[in-house]
Each structure stands twice: as structure tokens, then as C-alpha cells.
Design brief:
mainly beta; four-stranded antiparallel sheet; 34% strand; disordered N terminus
């Protein structure tokens, strides 16, 4: 009984933390280089944003709103003038289902193929409909089509397939190798070799929150996982195995939220991470 009560307390505590984060409004702002000051772009509950690989030329980036945003503003918004103006870019999504968007990735050859992928957790589900969802756009994010992807396990407890994708690494050679590597909620690290249609398990590591790779990937099969309890985990074999690499981090910094690599990682081997205790 004590074990059950303890698990309930942990679950409720985590749920309250998530709700407090989701209900906070974000004043979305940009900084002008000439003035070194901030200019508001709008007040929204923002879940994530992502910039075009050609941002300096096309001025394009997306904002996906939080699931708690009011329905009229729920979804994905697109700006192609560096944030001066915005347009709803949610055709093909279902805002009423309150998707918890987790990641939005551009194709490395976006300038030519106009492809973008969006991943998230769905609510308001039909009977036995999978929790996770993935959507693809091939017209620069103007319209979206939900992917019917396969390879994730069916769980008897929920009577659903658990395919929640938290973060994705896109191969710079995706038009040749079709390679995506994904961190998933509670299921480990998966890979797809056909641009997200079919997936296979690489590693069953559980407490991951995202996944990152340096610009040397996949020629150097180096991956980093921020985790909720094991600091940073590193793979040097493309995701088949991972080991903890937290030497030098504060002992109480068990949770790592983000990882970033130096643009010159091939030579300087620098990795940055952040968590509640700092960077």
C-alpha cells in the first residue's frame, strides 16, 4: 500500500508541475541587433518554435502553440518575414484535439523539397487510437498530412500503441538514407529509414526527454540524450547503446533539459547542456 501511495504522490507531483508550466503565457519577443533590445511579437502559449535552415535568406520560422491555448489560436503559425507578420498554418491538423507539440524539424534540403515534420502527443482520441502523432508538410508548412507510422508497441494497460515522439534527429542525407532517430516517451530510442513511416527499436533506455546530434552525424554516429534522472547519456554507435556521461556536472543535476553542440564539434569536441542547476 505504501508503494502505491508513493507512486501516486510522485505522479500527482509531476502532473502539477507540468500543468503549472503549460498554463503560463509566453510573451514572444525578438531582439533587434542594432538596438540590443527586445520587441514583442505577440502573447501566446508557445510550445516550441523552429527556424528554417535558410532563415537569413527566407526569414521563415514556425511557432506551435501549447495545448492549453484557446482553440482559435491553437495550432501552428508561420512567419516568412522574421516575425513581423504571422499566418495560421494549421490546415490538416486538428486543434480541437489539444495536441502537445514536442518537436518541429526542417528537411536539410528545405529550400528544394519544402518538407517539415511535426511531432506531438494527441488527446481527444478515438477508441484505441495511438497517443502520439506525426505530421508532414511538403509545401513549406502551409498544409499538413498525418503520418500513419508503424513499429511501436501496443500496451495492454492503455489498449493503445505508445508512439509518443519527444524529439527527432534528421540525417543531413535524408533524401538518400531516409534516416530519422527519435527519442520516445517511455519506449526508448527508435530509428526510421524511410522518413518516418516505419520504425525499429535501437535502445530501450527509458527516461529520455529529447535527442541531439552534432553536425558530424551520421558519418560520426554520435548522439546525446538529455534525461530526467540520468543526466546526459551518450551513444557512439548511432543509438544502439548509451552510457551516462555526467562527470563534472553538479551531483544534484540529475535532470538535463537541453544539449547543444559546437559548430566546430569535429575539432573542439565541445558539448553544452542545461538543467535546473545551470549551464
Amino acid at each position: 500500500m505504501q508503494s502505491i501511495q508513493k507512486r501516486c504522490c510522485i505522479f500527482l507531483g509531476g502532473l502539477l508541475l507540468i500543468l503549472s508550466l503549460l498554463l503560463s503565457s509566453v510573451n514572444f519577443q525578438s531582439q533587434a541587433q542594432s538596438e540590443r533590445s527586445w520587441a514583442p511579437l505577440g502573447v501566446n502559449r508557445v510550445a516550441l518554435w523552429s527556424f528554417s535552415p535558410n532563415y537569413s535568406e527566407d526569414g521563415l520560422f514556425f511557432v506551435a502553440t501549447n495545448a492549453t491555448e484557446k482553440m482559435s489560436l491553437r495550432g501552428v503559425f508561420r512567419s516568412d518575414d522574421m516575425g513581423d507578420t504571422w499566418a495560421d498554418s494549421s490546415e490538416g491538423l486538428e486543434p480541437k484535439k489539444r495536441a502537445y507539440y514536442a518537436d518541429l524539424e526542417f528537411s536539410p534540403t528545405f529550400a528544394e523539397d519544402k518538407t517539415v515534420w511535426l511531432w506531438g502527443h494527441k488527446t481527444g482520441l478515438g477508441r484505441q487510437e495511438a497517443f502520439g502523432g506525426g505530421w508532414e508538410s511538403t509545401d513549406g508548412g502551409l498544409t499538413w498530412v498525418e503520418l500513419d507510422y508503424k513499429g511501436f508497441p501496443f500496451r495492454e494497460m492503455t489498449q493503445r500503441v505508445n508512439q509518443d515522439i519527444l524529439g527527432v534527429v534528421v540525417s543531413p542525407n535524408i533524401n538518400e538514407d531516409g534516416l530519422l532517430i527519435a527519442a520516445t516517451a517511455g519506449e526508448g530510442v527508435y530509428q526510421s529509414k524511410d522518413k518516418g513511416r516505419n520504425w525499429e527499436l535501437l535502445s530501450s533506455v527509458k527516461d529520455v526527454t529529447n535527442i541531439f546530434a552534432p553536425n558530424t552525424f551520421p558519418e560520426e554516429p554520435f548522439l546525446a540524450l538529455p534525461t530526467s534522472g540520468s543526466q546526459v547519456m551518450i551513444s557512439t554507435d548511432g543509438g544502439k547503446t548509451f552510457e551516462e556521461r555526467g562527470n563534472g556536472l553538479p551531483v544534484n543535476m540529475t535532470s538535463v533539459r537541453e544539449v547543444a553542440f559546437s559548430e566546430n564539434f569535429a575539432n573542439d569536441r565541445k558539448i553544452f547542456c542545461s538543467g535546473p542547476q545551470g549551464v
